[in-house]
Amino acid sequence: MDKTAFLSGQLLLAMPGMSDPRFARAVIAMCSHDENGALGIGLGATVDGLGFHDLLDQFEIAPGDAPNAPVHFGGPVEPRRGFVIHSCDWGGQDTIEVAGLWALSSTIDVLRAIAEGKGPSQWVVALGYAGWDSGQIEGELARPGWFNVAGAADLVFDTNADERWRRAFERAGVDPRLLVADTGTA
């Protein structure tokens, strides 16, 4: 597969009528995509009643001045595993940079750094991820259900979860109010 066809650094948006209800109005920040498969972190919904301070408390980390930001539903795979999508101005153990747009960390060092005020300047926390085996996402993209758009730091870091889906479509020149779940026949 041509490297330009990979989705790393893009946002994957669920179309209306997505057959899997877990992905209704999903916004997935694609962090890794190659011939072996793909991994993305959902940023379109938050986990009710769970804030960043709750996660820090589970690891016995004092929150310091870190805001009690919402925790996102990153996806249905390993829903107890945490991920931080963050600005590229910080890197730690196992941090991967994604297309120069953001970075992904999944180790406790990023949580400590944020709590100590020494972490990335921008960050979003999620539990779980969306994953696809080799060729699986390409098959899904060939059917109605997903729409991919260019990734943008402001959509990831400066937009509330409940607004990301609409704003990402609008950024691509699509009015999401005009999208329908059903297809017609000619």
From TrEMBL:
Instruction: Report which superkingdom the organism of origin falls in.
Output: Bacteria
Note the Pfam families from the entry.
DUF179
- InterPro entries listed in its UniProt record: AlgH-like
Q: What does UniProt give as the signal peptide span? A: none
**Gene3D superfamilies from the xrefs?**
VC0467-like (3.40.1740.10)
Question: What are the GO cellular component annotations?
Answer: cytosol
SUPFAM superfamilies recorded? VC0467-like (SSF143456)
Q: Which family, according to UniProt?
A: Belongs to the UPF0301 (AlgH) family.
Please state what the protein is called: UPF0301 protein C8J24_2651
Q: Which organism is it from?
A: Sphingomonas aerolata
